[in-house]
Write a structure and sequence with these properties.
The protein is of the alpha+beta class and 150 residues long. It has one domain: Roll (Endonuclease I-creI), CATH 3.10.28.20. It contains two helices and seven strands; from the N terminus they run βββββααββ. It has helices spanning 89-108, 112-122, and strands spanning 20-22, 37-40, 51-53, 73-75, 79-86, 124-129, 135-142. Strands 1-4-5-7-6 form a five-stranded antiparallel β-sheet. A hairpin with a 5-residue loop joins strand 6 and strand 7 (135-142). Helix 1 (89-108) packs across helix 2 (112-122).
C-alpha cells in the first residue's frame, strides 16, 4: 500500500533492527502488520524493487497516549527521523520538514523559527521512495545536533 498517515509502505532504510517507530493510532483496536522486507535498498526506491527478503523479528508495542502524532516518526540510537508523504514530492518535503520542526520544538523547547533554522543547518532530507502514488521523504537529525531542553 502507498505510504500515508496510517503508514503503509514506508521504505526508510534507517528503520532497521533496534529502531523505535512511533505510529499514530487513529482507531481503537488498531491492528499491525509488517512486510516488504529489504536486505538492501538505496534511498528513493525508484522501480518497485529492492533486494527483497523475508522478515523475522520481535515487536514490542507500547501505547503512548502522551504522543499526539499525525504521521509516523522513528528513532535510532543516533538520530530522529520524521516522514512526509504526498503525491507531490515538494509537498512531501514540506510535511517531513514541518514534522521535524515540531519534534525539535517538543524535545528542546526551541521556538519553531529556531527549529526551522536548525533543520537548515543540521538536518538531512532524503527521498524515501517514488514508486507509489504517494511519494515519501524522510528528514533525519542526529541527536548530537539537538540542543538540550530549555
Amino acid at each position: 500500500k502507498q505510504p500515508r498517515a496510517s503508514v503503509g509502505n514506508m521504505d526508510v532504510k534507517e528503520r532497521a533492527a533496534g529502531a523505535t517507530v512511533y505510529f499514530p493510532v487513529f482507531v481503537d483496536g488498531a491492528l499491525f502488520s509488517a512486510g516488504d522486507g529489504h536486505a538492501l535498498q538505496g534511498d528513493g526506491e525508484v522501480c518497485l524493487t529492492a533486494i527483497e527478503t523475508a522478515l523475522s523479528g520481535t515487536f514490542e508495542f507500547i501505547l503512548r497516549k502522551d504522543l499526539k502524532l499525525s504521521l509516523p516518526r522513528a528513532e535510532t540510537a543516533e538520530m530522529w527521523i520524521t516522514m512526509g508523504f504526498d503525491e507531490d514530492l515538494d509537498d512531501a518535503v514540506k510535511i517531513a520538514l514541518r514534522q521535524m520542526i515540531s519534534l525539535i520544538s517538543e524535545l528542546s523547547g526551541l521556538n519553531r523559527q529556531d527549529a526551522y533554522s536548525l533543520c537548515s543547518i543540521a538536518a538531512d532530507l532524503r527521498v524515501t521512495q517514488t514508486v507509489d502514488g504517494n511519494k515519501g521523504i524522510h528528514c533525519l537529525l542526529r541527536k548530537t545536533k539537538l540542543p538540550p531542553r530549555r
